[in-house]
């Protein structure tokens, strides 16, 4: 069984959450991993430059998402 709890702050961690985990998993062994949500990030100057270059490309040369994925699969075996 797998469960994910998303909290907006570590301050939201409460005894209720621990009790819910205990109830769900009973006496089974579990692993608890805590990680910081790092989805909020700022683009570096280099990232912005790459995006700006892409915006200046000729739209007629664009690849569809499907074509792009197919090329990556062929090249890297993804």
Summarize the structure.
With 78 residues, the chain is an all-alpha fold.
Describe the structure in your own words.
The protein is mainly alpha-helical and 78 residues long. It contains three helices and no strands. The protein has helices at residues 15-25, 45-55, 65-76. The longest helix has 12 residues, at 65-76. The protein is elongated, with a radius of gyration of 22 Å.
Low-confidence stretches: none
Task: Outline the biggest β-sheet.
Answer: none
What best-fitting shape do the alpha-carbon axes yield? elongated
Tell me the fraction of residues in β-strands, as a range.
under 5%
Overall mean pLDDT stands at: 89
Overall strand count: 0
Oligomer: single chain
Could you tell me the radius of gyration in angstroms? 22 Å
* DSSP helix fraction: 40-55%
**Helix/strand order, N-terminal first:** HHH
Instruction: Supply the helix-strand structural class.
Output: mainly alpha
Number of distinct helices: 3
Distance between the termini: 28 Å
């Amino acid at each position: 069984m797998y469960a994910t709890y998303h909290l907006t702050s570590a301050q939201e961690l409460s005894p209720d959450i621990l009790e819910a985990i205990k109830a769900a998993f009973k006496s089974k062994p579990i692993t608890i991993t805590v990680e910081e949500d790092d989805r909020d990030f700022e683009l570096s100057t280099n990232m912005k430059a790459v995006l700006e270059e892409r915006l200046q490309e000729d739209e007629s040369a664009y690849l569809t998402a499907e074509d792009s994925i197919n090329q990556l699969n062929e090249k890297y075996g993804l």
